[in-house]
Design a protein that fits this description.
globular; 336 residues
Amino acid sequence: MKTNKDKFKLSTCDLGTAFSCNLRCRMCRLWQNSPLNAMNTLNEAEWVDVFSQLARLNPGMPVNFSGPGEAFLRPDIYKLIREAGERSLKVRLISNGSAVDETAARCLREAAPEMVGFSIDSLDPACHDYLRGVPGTLARALKAVENVNRFAAETAIGINTVITGLNLNDLPKLADWVEQDSRIQHLHFQAVTQPFSFRDPFDPEWQARESFQELWPSDWERLWQVLEDLKARKLAGGKIANLPGQFEIFADYFQNPTRFVKSTRCNLISSGVLIIDPAGNVSVCPMIGIAGCVRNSSIADILDSPEFEKHCGEVERCRRNCHLVVSCYFEEESRP
């Protein structure tokens, strides 16, 4: 008889170590309605226990210190990075760069994560700062790149960029910059999806709503040109991290966002992706629901539970074009 372990093989984990944010991004509403605070999220000791459990389940696995929020706002973030690294986990951070000054970069050197990815959507301050909702954000992000390169050179630097209708024409210039800048290892693109929210239900027509229309590319010809350009750069051996076929999927998605981009089923189960949110809830896809909580059960027990098996089945049956399938954990497949 097959068990959950036969079907789901843990390969990577997104850890919600951050729970607050200092930006007001237009692609995200978590800052508007977050119920999270320092009192109801995992504390340092609880996260260290999570690291130990993950290291036993898959020694040396990569873990992403993610949100909802900005990782460097957490006072004990450097201790958490060190603790995870001491258990041979490969730590990667996602950051908007706004809080990575010289002091933070020096602390980062001692903590020694494998990589930090900074969110930069355009080299035009007006565009980037508008998308991120706070003036001066681009300047601080660019300074963060400089600080990490200067004071924590062993940590690789990546750039994460969301494709929207507002920054579409800026993407080739951004790709040129990354290609020419020896400090930066890679550039990863994501397609804008329904803005994240703790409260708003899934809306397949979100891009047609007046409050979000500006985020959706409206010039199809220009969109196709830009996506073809980015794909060509990837095929030529550039620093773009996306798989070549992902740009075709982006085109399909932007042309018809309600049509499921996968040929058969969601690939998150086969990818072995596990998400542990700031409160310790465990899932493969939090939009489907949760399968358990590390405050009540071990991760191993959760993965072997009937609740997790049910959760995995619901994920596989889902036909939603979410950010995990379209962007973060995209897998190429044979296309009809």
